[in-house]
Design brief:
Two copies of one chain form a homodimer.
Chain A lengths: L1 E5 L3 H11 L8 E6 L5 H4 L3 E2 L3 H4 L6 E4 L5 H12 L3 E4 L2 H17 L4 E2 L11 H10 L2 E7 L2 H13 L3 H10 L8 H4 L2 H15 L9 E2 L7 H9 L3 E10 L4 E11 L12 E8 L3 E8 L3 H16 L14 E3 L6 E6 L2 E6 L9 E5 L1
Parallel strand pairs in A: 1-2, 1-4, 2-3, 4-5, 5-6, 8-10, 10-13, 10-16
Antiparallel strand pairs in A: 7-9, 7-11, 9-10, 11-12, 14-15, 14-16
Helix pairs in contact in A: 1-12, 4-5, 5-10, 6-10, 7-8
C-alpha cells in the first residue's frame, strides 16, 4: 500500500512519522509528501512540488489530506478520488460541506473515502457509528467534541484561570490555533456534529442550519455561580432525530450534573455518546486534539483500506430540516451578576450569557 | 450469509430476533437453531435437534454460540471451525481458556473467529482494541466490566440497599443469574480481563493466575465510610504490561475519586479504558449486560464476517507471567467498623474487607 501525504504540518508530519515507524510487515510506505518548498530539504526525495505528483501518481494507492481549510483540500480530494486513489482526511471543514460528493466519487471510482480523524481526533468514533447503523438505529448523539474549548473551560473551572490565560496555555501546549475563533464560537463543533448526524441519520444535516452559541462570554464569575448551583459547564454538541426528515441540533454551553457521563471529560479530552434502538447508549472517549492521536486515527484508516475493511458509502436520502432546543428546553440565563432559570429561551441577546440545562 | 445459532436463551433468542428483523438487503438469514426439545414448537422448521445439524450443515456459513459454560461450547466451536464455519461467540468462559486454539483453527480453516460480545456486552471494544494494536502499542487496560456487580454496587451506594436486596433487584431486571457467585467473586471479570490483556499484549495472560478479590463483604457501613472519605467504590479490573513477558493484573474493589472517568459509570453500564503509545487514552462505554446490547454485538460480528472485515488472528507469543498490585499499591482496609490506609497489603485476611486506592 503506497501512500501520498498532502500537508506535512502537525498532523501530516505525525502520520509520516507513524508510517515510517510501522513494522515492514504492515506493508505501508509513504512515497510522496506535498508541502511548501520550505519543507523540501527535510523531505528529500519524497518532496512533491505539486499536488499532481501525489493525486495523479500511478504508484500511489492512498492520498492523505492533512492541510485544513476547504477550497484547496476540496480540489485535491476530488482530484485524488477521480484518479482512483482512496482518500483519508482529518478535515472537518471540507467533509462537512462535501461529504456526499466525496463518498459518491469514491464509490464511482471503486476506492474508499475515510474521515475518522475529522471528528474526535484519535477516537475510533466514525467507524463505530458506521458499524452501528449497519445493524441498529441511532437517534441521538451528544458529546464534547472540541479539545481546545474543553481544555479552556476545564482550566477556568478547576484552576480559576481567565479565558485569556487559559487560551494562552492551550496555545502553548499546541491545543489551540493562534486564532481560536472557530473553536470558541462553536464553528468547529458545528462541522463535527453535522458529519456525525448526517452519517447517523442517513441524510445530510446542513451545516449552515445548525444553531450555535459560543463560550466567549464565559467568565470566572459565571463558572463560580454555576458551580454553586451544583452544575458543571461544558460546551456540548447535541443532535436528536425528531422525525423522518427532521432533527434538533445545537452547539451550545450546557450545564450538566456530576452523574452525567460527560462530567469527568476534562482538558483536551473528548467524549461522544449515542443512543441506539437495540444497543442502548454507547460512549467513546479519547484525545480530541493533538498530533499523534489524530495521526493514529488516520493511519488506522489507511490500515482499513489495505485490509479492504471499513466499506461505507454515505447516501443522502434527502436533506434534514434542522431545529434547535431553544423553544422547548430550560436555560440558565446570566445578567449583571445574577442568574435565573428560564423555561424556553426566547431572546438570548438580552442576557450576558445563556446555557442550556442538559 | 447463512447463520446457525447454538442456544436460544436470552442472548441467542435476541440474536434470532435481530437477524429476522434485518432488512433483506443485509442478506443474512438464520437457517437452524439448536436448543432443548422444549423450544421445538417455537422454532418450527428451524429447530435443530443436534449440534451437527448446525456445525456440519453445508448451507451454514456462520455458527453463533450462545450457550454459556465451557466443555460443550468448546466442543461445538472447534467442530464448527473444523467444518469451515466462521464462529461468533459471547462466551467469556470458553474464550478465556481456549482463545489460542479457536483463533488458530479459524486461520487453518480459512474462516473467522469473533468474540466481541464476550467482553463488555454491546460495547465495540475488542474490535477497537484489535484496530489499535495493528498500528499502536497498548500497555494498560482498566475498567468496569461486569454489569451485575456494578448494578449491585450502584444500588447500594446511591439508594442505600443491602447487597441481598440489590442482588434480588438485579435478578428481577435480568441483570444477574440466580447464582451470582461468578460475578460477585470476580471470576467473570477475571475471564474478561484475561481476554483483553492477551489480545492487547500479543501473548496469553493465564486466567488461572489472575488475582481476584470479590465484593461479597461490602456492607452499607463500608460504603458510607468510603463516601465520607471522598471516594466511590467500584469493582475494577486492571492490567498493566510491566515487561516483555510480564504484567500485573487484578480484579478487585477499588476506591476512585470523582474525577476518574469510571466515576460516572453506574448501574448495568460498563466502561473500559486503555492507554496507547501514540493514541494516549481511549475509552468505551455501554451496556455490559442485557439481551439486545449483547445480541447487537454478535450481529455486528456476523456483519464483519459478511464484509470480510475484522480479520485478526491471536498468536500466543509465549504466556505472560502475572503479578498483582498487592505489594506495591495503597489499600483501604476495614475491620470492626474502622478503616485505615495501608501501604502495600501483606495479609488481607486479617481485615473484614480491603480495596485498592486507585
Amino acid at each position: 500500500m503506497n501512500v501520498g501525504i498532502l500537508g506535512c504540518g502537525t498532523i501530516g508530519g505525525g502520520v509520516l512519522n507513524l508510517i515510517d515507524n510501522l513494522p515492514s510487515s504492515a506493508n505501508v510506505k509513504v512515497l510522496k509528501v506535498f508541502d511548501l518548498p520550505s519543507k523540501k530539504e527535510m523531505l528529500g526525495e519524497r518532496f512533491a512540488e505539486t499536488i499532481d505528483e501525489v493525486c495523479q501518481n500511478k504508484d500511489i494507492d492512498v492520498v492523505i489530506e492533512a492541510m485544513g481549510g476547504d477550497k484547496f483540500p476540496y480540489e485535491c480530494i476530488t482530484k485524488a478520488l477521480k484518479n482512483k486513489k482512496s482518500v483519508v482526511t482529518s478535515n472537518k471543514e471540507t467533509v462537512s460541506l462535501h461529504m456526499e460528493e466525496f463518498y459518491s466519487l469514491a464509490k464511482e471510482n471503486g476506492v474508499q473515502f475515510l474521515c475518522e480523524a475529522s471528528v474526535g481526533g484519535g477516537i475510533p468514533l466514525i467507524c463505530s457509528l458506521i458499524d452501528s447503523i449497519k445493524v441498529d438505529k441511532v437517534d441521538r448523539i451528544f458529546g464534547i467534541i472540541n479539545g481546545t474549548t474543553n481544555f479552556v473551560l476545564t482550566k477556568m473551572s478547576k484552576e480559576g484561570l481567565s479565558m485569556e490565560d487559559a487560551l494562552a496555555e492551550a496555545r502553548r501546549l499546541g491545543f489551540a490555533e493562534f486564532d481560536a475563533t472557530a473553536d470558541i464560537e462553536g464553528l468547529d463543533l458545528t462541522r463535527k456534529i453535522c458529519i456525525l448526524s448526517s452519517i447517523a441519520y442517513g441524510g445530510y444535516v446542513p451545516y449552515s442550519e445548525i444553531y450555535h452559541y459560543g463560550i466567549s462570554k464565559v467568565t470566572p464569575e459565571i463558572l463560580a455561580d454555576v458551580k454553586e448551583k451544583g452544575y458543571i459547564l461544558k460546551f456540548v454538541a447535541e443532535s436528536r432525530r425528531t422525525g423522518d426528515k427532521t432533527c434538533k441540533v445545537s452547539v451550545e454551553p450546557c450545564l450538566i450534573t456530576a452523574d452525567n457521563p460527560l462530567s469527568a471529560v476534562s482538558y483536551e479530552f473528548n467524549a461522544v455518546y449515542y443512543n441506539c434502538a437495540s444497543n442502548d447508549l454507547l460512549g467513546f472517549y479519547g484525545k480530541g486534539a493533538g498530533r499523534y492521536p489524530t495521526a493514529t486515527a488516520m493511519v488506522s484508516d489507511v490500515r482499513r483500506i489495505s485490509e479492504n475493511a471499513g466499506k461505507y458509502t454515505f447516501v443522502n436520502n434527502g436533506d434534514f430540516k434542522v431545529e434547535n432546543f431553544l423553544a422547548t428546553e430550560k436555560y440558565y440565563a446570566y445578567k449583571d451578576g445574577k442568574s435565573e432559570i428560564v423555561d424556553g429561551m426566547k431572546d438570548s441577546s438580552k442576557y450576558d450569557f445563556v446555557a442550556r440545562i442538559f
